[in-house]
Amino acid sequence: MSEPITYASAGVDVKAGDRAVELMKASVARAQRPEVVGGLGGFAGLFDASALRSMSRPVLATSTDGVGTKVAIAQAMDVHDTIGIDLVGMVVDDIVVSGAEPLFMTDYIACGKVVPERIAAIVSGIARGCELAGVALVGGETAEHPGLLGPEEYDVAGAATGVVEYDDVLGPQRVREGDAVIALASSGLHSNGYSLVRRVIAAAGWEWDRHVEELGRTIGEEALEPTRIYSRMLLDLIATDGVDVHALSHVTGGGLAANLGRVLPTGAMATIDRATWTPPAVFSLVQELGSVPLADLERTLNMGVGFVATVPGEQADRAVAASVELGVPAWVVGEVLADTGETGEEIVRGAKGVDGGAVRVTGNYRA
Prior knowledge:
With 367 residues, the protein is α+β, with helices and mostly antiparallel strands. The protein has 11 helices and 15 strands.
């Protein structure tokens, strides 16, 4: 008679999953808000929404995302405690685009084999990101998928919910001709375009532990630099006296022009001047190492701009100063004009199904 088949022999270790939960408890405890009801381990996370009763017309905002193939670099370098920060940034910073305050988040980790210490490291990064964003981590799921993923492989995803007063929703309806476009600096590559980056590094025959002089660290360390989380500082910027934020755009897949166009009204064109900033060294490194055409690079990577805001032109200096005071380098990158209907390689119209405004990118990056 053959040996009996158990869940463990099929590749799923329930005890390891329980051990991972125990290891992550301390991290999750730091990522809380007063509205959280109950603790870790319930079938659903509970969040007291009674405060919403004081709002006139509360609108819930929700978003879900992952971090793409950046996880492959984390796995290659065996560094797992930062990828969760990226996850939180990708999710909550989509929510704040509407002017909403992110409230709570859940995560999902799929792996080929539960290694409790690795899962706990991933969750510690998620919890740290939630702390930075002022978001409660109210629950999550770790799923072991032997045969579907290799023992060292995993992927992460998350979802969050926020709230905003209906009358305070930001977006194209607020944008006006003459608005200034304010750029907020990225912390690096963030979490988009890693299929391109990985292909370039592989084609060059580089290893992730290769030290790169112009970066001042290894290429792997640069690639794993966590995504900057903007939500908390942007909520403070929105609340700043003398700054009337009209629209925000999270610069993710598609690049600066395509994402800015999504928050502009039809009939408007934003002009972006490359000469107003110097992209960090990693972007020129990827371009030169892979002979990547500039147009492709700009459609794929953020080029040093992680977020943009539009404000009335006369408030531009105040908005820049407030952003810097809140800890994020910022500068005026362009302005909003009337759309003349022109076409050309440097003009983008419509992106990701949104019939928005146009964006023209001009000039050369500052050396």
